[in-house]
Design brief:
Layout lengths: L2 H9 L4 E6 L6 H14 L3 E4 L7 H15 L3 E3 L13 E7 L5 H18 L2 E9 L4 H6 L10 H13 L4 E5 L10 H10 L4 E4 L5 H10 L3 E4 L1 H5 L3 H12 L2
Parallel strand pairs: 1-2, 1-8, 2-3, 3-4, 4-5, 5-6, 6-7, 7-8
Helix pairs in contact: 2-3, 2-10, 6-7, 7-8, 8-10
Bound molecules: SN-glycerol-1-phosphate (1GP).
The site of SN-glycerol-1-phosphate (1GP) has 15 residues, from strand 8 and helix 9.
Length: 245
């Protein structure tokens, strides 16, 4: 499967919803159940990742369980260079553009590249920018977070990602954020770039998902909600709002 093409084809028909599952938060079997529930709710793909505690072992077992239970594409959303697995369908080959630690911008990517090649994993390039409040990923990633009112700066990062030839651009408020990326920022970035825009962090309600979609997000990611809620009806309402259905 070519995951990049799968995502681009789907985006051509509207906004997608992606479920983020952290392999460190539950046993693989439970991750499989969550993925199956999300598949039934209408989710288009699964990101696997977390800022800490991800190993090649829990990544592989979680990816396997998710694929078996849901059949959804499994996309590795890496938190560092330590964990890799050929059980995933692709890896987001990402640059944390606003990290003050050079390793997060380019060092880890160089370190991982030969292994990704050897394992034959599809690498999908992505510019990744942390927006206030940034949460754990901002802290662990040593990000110089983009403030909520720094819309022009967010646009500049998006343009830089596009000029670098990156396939996707991701605005991240951080997992568990009390406020998602502001719709004005999403709108401004979306109108400035032509590569697909991913938005995540703090989206837990149909209203927040709809606001991100209406502002122009091409992919909406939710993580915390899936850990806290097993009500298929409610999850479905968030996914439908994300997808405009
Ligand atoms: C992934 O940050 C998102 O990028 C997930 O955020 O856990 O707040 O949904 P939540």
């Amino acid at each position: 499967m070519n995951v990049k093409q799968y995502l681009l084809d789907k985006i051509a028909n509207g906004t997608l919803h992606v479920a983020l599952i952290d392999p460190d938060k539950q046993p693989a079997e439970t991750a499989g159940e969550i993925a199956e529930r999300m598949k039934n709710a209408g989710t288009d793909a699964v990101f696997i990742g977390g800022s800490t505690g991800v190993t090649s072992e829990n990544l592989a077992s979680t990816a396997k369980a998710i694929k078996e239970r849901s059949g959804l594409p499994v996309i590795h959303f890496p938190g560092g260079p330590d964990a890799l697995s050929r059980e995933v369908d692709c890896i987001l080959y990402m640059c944390m553009m606003n990290s003050e630690k050079l390793d997060n911008v380019i060092g880890y990517q160089v370190m991982a590249a030969p292994y990704i090649k050897k394992l034959g994993i599809e690498a999908v390039s992505m510019g990744y920018v942390i927006v206030e409040p940034g949460m754990k990923v901002g802290e662990v990633g040593k990000a110089k977070v983009v403030k909520r009112e720094e819309v022009d700066l967010a646009v500049a990062y998006g343009l830089a990602a596009e000029m670098y030839g990156m396939s996707f651009f991701y605005l991240e408020a951080g997992s568990g954020a009390d406020r998602p990326v502001p719709p004005e920022m999403i709108r401004a970035v979306k109108s400035a770039i032509s590569i697909p825009l991913i938005v995540g962090g703090g989206i837990r309600t149909p209203e927040a998902a709809a606001a991100a979609r209406e502002a122009g997000a091409d992919i909406i990611v939710t993580g915390t909600l899936l850990e806290r809620c097993d009500d298929g009806e409610y999850l479905g309402s968030v996914v439908r709002a994300a997808k405009g259905q």
